[in-house]
């Protein structure tokens, strides 16, 4: 379960400022006199945000034929997932946001690893064939194609599978503390994690419940 590292960074990594306006799937954040409009997952604006309060959004700038669009996310894990889905043929920003509106990051990864076509077909705009394509193109990428800094794996994680799984979760955007805790719990609950994918799936299920 080798993690490929890339040094490419987003042009605008995050925006921190005052929430000025919000609607269904969009927000305007003011920072030093500039109002940034960001397209966001549909469930984000209903998460208790209040106009006039300070917010922080991780961002992704996308160039389309008709201009530049800025997308915002409540966590780096959500942005990682958005970027991953954009790499699937036939998926643009709108469908990628639909994924995040329907699933938490962990729930989505578990559905892909379990090849749960029925679950993925419930995403707005995604039918059975599109769900199958998501699984086909993403299942092998989940453990192996994320970017980020090398994680310093705790010395106590002596088993190779545990180290690889913690590294994979860290690359997905989870904190090292979250990853190590989930892997430890998953390993303690079952002995049937001889393959890294099995341990990764079990750890993701625990994270999806937290």
Task: Provide a descriptive summary of the structure in words.
The chain has 210 residues and is an alpha+beta fold. The chain folds into 3 domains: 14-73, Nucleic acid-binding proteins (OB fold (Dihydrolipoamide Acetyltransferase, E2P), Beta Barrel), CATH 2.40.50.140; 76-138, 5' to 3' exonuclease, C-terminal subdomain (DNA polymerase, domain 1), CATH 1.10.150; 160-209, Helicase, Ruva Protein, domain 3, CATH 1.10.8. Helix content is 40%, strand content 19%. Strands 3-2-1-4-5 form a 5-stranded antiparallel β-sheet, with helices on one face. Helix 3 (105-113) packs antiparallel against helix 8 (196-209), helix 6 crosses helix 7 (176-189) and helix 6 crosses helix 8. The longest helix is centred in the C-terminal third of the chain and has 14 residues, at 176-189. The two termini are 25 Å apart.
Calculate Rg over CA atoms: 18 Å
Q: Please report which band the strand proportion falls in: under 5%, 5-15%, 15-25%, 25-35%, 35-45% or over 45%.
A: 15-25%
CATH topology of the largest domain: DNA polymerase, domain 1
The strand count comes to: 5
Tally the structural domains. Answer: 3
The general outline is globular
* CATH architectural grouping of the largest domain: Orthogonal Bundle
Query: How many H/I helical runs?
Result: 8
Structural class: alpha+beta
Question: Which stretches of 5+ consecutive residues score pLDDT under 50?
Answer: 1-7, 144-158
Cross-sheet strand order for the largest sheet: 3-2-1-4-5
Euclidean distance between termini CA atoms:
25 Å
Q: Write the H/E string, N to C.
A: EEEEEHHHHHHHH
Major sheet description: 5 strands, antiparallel
> Quick one: CATH class of the largest domain?
Mainly Alpha
Could you estimate the helical fraction of the residues in percent?
A: 40-55%
Spell out the CATH superfamily of the largest domain. 5' to 3' exonuclease, C-terminal subdomain
Mean pLDDT: 81
């Amino acid at each position: 379960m080798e993690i490929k590292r890339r040094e490419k960074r987003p042009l605008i990594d995050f925006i921190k400022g005052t929430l000025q306006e919000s609607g269904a799937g969009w927000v305007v954040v003011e920072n030093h006199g500039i109002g940034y409009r960001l397209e966001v997952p549909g469930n984000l604006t209903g998460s208790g945000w209040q106009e006039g309060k300070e917010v922080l959004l991780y961002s992704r700038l996308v160039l389309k034929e008709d201009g530049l669009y800025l997308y915002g996310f409540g966590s780096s894990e959500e942005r990682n997932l958005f970027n991953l889905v954009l790499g699937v043929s036939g998926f643009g920003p709108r469908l990628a946001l639909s994924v995040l509106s329907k699933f938490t990051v962990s729930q989505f990864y578990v559905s892909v690893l379990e090849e749960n076509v029925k679950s993925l077909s419930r995403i707005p705009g995604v039918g059975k064939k599109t769900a199958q394509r998501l699984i086909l193109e993403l299942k092998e990428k989940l453990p192996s194609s994320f970017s980020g800094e090398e994680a310093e794996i705790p010395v106590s994680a002596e088993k190779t599978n545990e180290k690889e799984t913690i590294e994979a979760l860290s690359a997905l955007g989870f904190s090292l503390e979250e990853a190590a805790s989930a892997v430890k719990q998953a390993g303690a609950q079952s002995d049937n994690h001889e393959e890294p994918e099995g341990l990764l799936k079990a750890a993701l299920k625990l994270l999806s419940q937290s």
